Amino acid sequence: MISSFSMLSILKRTLLLYGTVKIDDLVEEVHKHMLANSSLEQIKTRYVLPILRNNPSFVEVENGNNVWQLTKGNKLNDVIYDILKKYRSPLSERQILNRLAKEKHLATLSMVIDLKNDPRFSDIEGGKYWILTEWIVINEYARSILLKLKSSLSEKELVEKVIETYRVDPELALFLPMFDESFIKKDGRWTLKKFVERKSKLRASQIDRLYNSLQEAGESLTSDELTASVFNIPAQATDIDECLAIDPRFLRVNGKWSLKKDDFIPQNQPIINKIESIQKPIASTEQQITTSQESTSKIVDSVNFEIPISSKIQEEEQNRFTKSDKVEKETTNQSISEQTAWEKKEKRYLKERHFRIVHNETGHTYESIFGEYLKDAKSIIIEDPYIRVAHQIQNLTRPCELIVTAGTIMDIKLITGYKDDEQKTNVTKSFLQLKNSLANYGINFNFEFSKTLHDRQIQLDNGWVIKIGRGLDFYRAPESRFSVGAIDMKFQYCLETNVDIFKIEDK
C-alpha cells in the first residue's frame, strides 16, 4: 500500500479485501501504515471509530458488535465510477468534472461530487486524486521485481512482469510510481531510487574483482552483468562506469566492458593461452640453464682442471639452507599469527552507530542492526510498550532466536504495555509459550507490564544500548502471507525510523 493513501482509504481498501473486519484489526491496519507512535487506544477512539460511525461508506454488521463492512455506495456516482474505469488512472475532481462534461455533454461544471462517502472510491495525496478502491496498486510487487532483477524496466514490461509473477488481475492492476518516492524514471525506464541516488563507490580491491571476473568469463560483459555476478547489485547502484573508464586495463565497446589487448583472454583460448604464458618462461629458463651448463663444461675441459668438493663443504651448505628455510618458515608463521590476532581484535572492536532507516527501505534485520553487539553479553532487557498483538509478539520471537544463536545470553527481561485486562491475559499466554520454548535452550525469560512505559530500548549487560525509534515493530505488513518478505525479513519493507547504538560504560 502506497504511503499517500489517507486513513479513510486504508479502511475502505481493508474492508474491500476482507469483507467484514473487527474494529481492533482495522486499528492494527492503520497503526501499521501510519500513526505508529500513537497508542492503539488513541487510534481507535480519536480516529478510526469516528470515521466508521460518521461515514456512510461503512456499516456495522450487528449493532454494538464492532464488526464492520462496506455499504454499496451512492448510485449517483455510477457515472464517475465508469469514468475512472475507462481511464484507469488517478484523476482529480476537476479532471473528473471535465471528462463528465465532455462525455455526458453537461453544460456546467458547477455540480459537486461526493466520493469521500462512497466506498467504491479511495483518495490519495490528501484527496487531490481519486482511484477505485477495487484497483490493486502493484507498487509493492513492482518493487520486489526490480529488487530481484537489479535493473530497470519500461512501465509496460514491469506491469506485465508483475501480472505474470504474482497472478494479479490485469483489469485491476494499477502502477502508481508518481506517488511513491522509492521509484525513479531514467531514460524512459523505471528503477528504484536507491539504485540511482545511493551509488556505492567501488574500492580498488572491488575493481580488481571485476578484472578477475572478466578474465574468467573470457568475453565482454555489460555493467549490469558484471555488478550482478560479482556484487549482486545493479550497476546503477555503483560508480562502475566511472571507475572502469579511467582504469587503463578496461575497454568499453558497444556498451560492453572487456580487458584491453594485453589483458584480455578470448573465451575459446583461456586455458591454452595461460599454459603458453607459463611454458614460455620455463622454456627460456631451461635454455639458459642448458647454455650455461655447456659453457661451464667447455671451460672446465679447456683447462683440463677438476675442482674437488669435499663432503664437509656439501654438509655445511645443506645445513645453511635448512637453517635459512626454518627461519623463513618461523617468520611466516609469526606473521600469520600476528595477522590473525589483529583480525580477531578488529572483529571484537564495535563502534557506535547512528543511522536512519528510510521509508520502504529493505535489507534491515534484527541481526544486521544489533546482532554483533550481543557478543559476550549475559543478560538483556527489552523495553517496548507495543508487544501486544500477534505480529508484535512474532517480532519479539525473532531477536529471541538471534539470542539463542549468539549462545552467551542466559537471561531475557521484557517490559511492555497493555490496553486492557483482556489483552493482558491473552498476551501473557503467548509470553508463557515463549518462556517455555526458551527454557529448552537454557535461557530464562521474564516479563512485566507497565502502564506508563513509552520509550523503546534494548539494554545489554556488556554496556551496549540499542534504541530503535519504532521499537521492534518497524516493518511494514507484507502484502500477504505468501509474498516475498513474509519469511525472510531482509526483503521486508521498513517504516522510517532512527537507530542509535551506543555504549554507556566500558566493560
From TrEMBL:
Domain (MITD1 C-terminal phospholipase D-like) ranges:
363-503
Q: What species is given as this protein's source?
A: Vecturithrix granuli
The protein's name is: MITD1 C-terminal phospholipase D-like domain-containing protein
Output the PANTHER family linked to this UniProt entry.
MIT DOMAIN-CONTAINING PROTEIN 1
Q: What is the lineage of its organism?
A: Bacteria, Candidatus Moduliflexota, Candidatus Vecturitrichia, Candidatus Vecturitrichales, Candidatus Vecturitrichaceae
Under the heading InterPro entries, the entry gives: MIT_domain_contain_protein1, MITD1_C, MITD1_C_sf
